Amino acid sequence: MDKKKILIVSSSFYPQNSPRSFRTTELVKEFARQGHEVTLLTLKDDQEHLLFEEKHGVTIKDIGPLSFPRIQLNGTNGIGSLFKRVVRRGMLQFFEYPDIELLFRVKKALKRESGYDLLISIAVPHPIHWGVAWAWRTKNPIAKTWVADCGDPYMGETLDSFRKMFYFKYAEKHFCRKADVITVPIESAKDGYYPEFRDKIAVIPQGFSFDEVAIDQASYTKHEVPTFAYAGGFIPGGRDPRPFIDYIVNTKDDFKLILYTRNGDLVEPWLEKADGRIEIRDYIPRPKLLKTLSTMDFLVNFENQSPLMMPSKLIDYYLAGRPVLNISSNGLDTDKISRFLKGDYSEKLIYNGVDQYRIENVCGRFLDLCSKNEIGNGTIQQ
């Protein structure tokens, strides 16, 4: 394998707990493990990232510091809270605030970068791509190949209650025109992009190191009370737990549900009635989470309403080795839920094509795109 010089641009990175952070972190580590020269442009934290550089043999450069403050909602109630919510939504809706600052920071940081074989920009947030597009010059490109990696669509996003303002389509079309390849995690996500750019889109799923966290599945011990967990965010009307929570709270079955989430407010109306059967916990580091999930009787997944996105948590669930109760976005199958609560997991989620999520294979897909672009003089043949 030829050694490549790779630049990755992302605002989400270790030790953050988010799908985009995992995407960035796994790519950086695996490319470096394979012997490539890797540079990461991110929001650098010397306390965390100097050790990471030394351990993995990579170079981390700073985008920031960012100066646009985020509008915090905690600490206010009543009219004050409502006012802050309105202001925060308005600033996000009309100006993509505060992430719009990344557009300028990325553009400035890339002035000092050149000579790479492969540049991978990672969104969300999408101003990362916009900043790369602004800095990109066809006659003197930063890299031979630019891959714009998108976890979620932007203009074509369907889960938010509010549509993006029409003028942001110009920023999206600008980066789509300039990028050599646009990558999305699942085939159906292509529909979230303008038709004229879909021939540029390649499908590369989320990648994970299957061997990084050792799970001894033989050590699992069944709980006296059915104990199960969910880890991740909730989206009202999208990845919505409320019908499921309402059903199980009103059953006579005893259970223990542990939610690792920061959207606990969605289920708070049921906590009193649950009488201790539901516990809300904050996020924990992924290795610790996987080991904790491996001790559960089973795990819960809530399908997205939109087919454009698939939760990466399913790979974590696979690595944890426990049966998964999949809650369809088309309505509750109460009989199936009841059977899970009684220890019958015959209708557990079936995984297909798991090897495609191995980080070694995911990095190989990115390198293939780089090679095809070099051979084709700028045109990717999908």
Give a written overview of the molecule:
- With 382 residues, the chain is α/β, with parallel strands linked by helices.
- It folds into 2 domains: 5-209 and 358-375, Glycogen Phosphorylase B (Rossmann fold), CATH 3.40.50.2000; 217-353, Rossmann fold.
- The protein is built from 12 helices and 12 strands.
- It has a 7-stranded parallel sheet with strand order 3-2-1-4-5-6-7, sandwiched between helices.
- Helix 1 (19-33) crosses helix 12 (359-375) and helix 9 (286-293) crosses helix 10 (313-320).
- The protein is globular.
The tally of structural domains comes to: 2
- Helix count equals 12
The poorly predicted ranges are: 377-382
CATH architecture of the largest domain: 3-Layer(aba) Sandwich
C-alpha termini separation = 22 Å
Topology as a string of helices (H) and strands (E):
EHEHEHHEHEHEEEHEHEHEHEHH
The CATH homologous superfamily of the largest domain: Glycogen Phosphorylase B
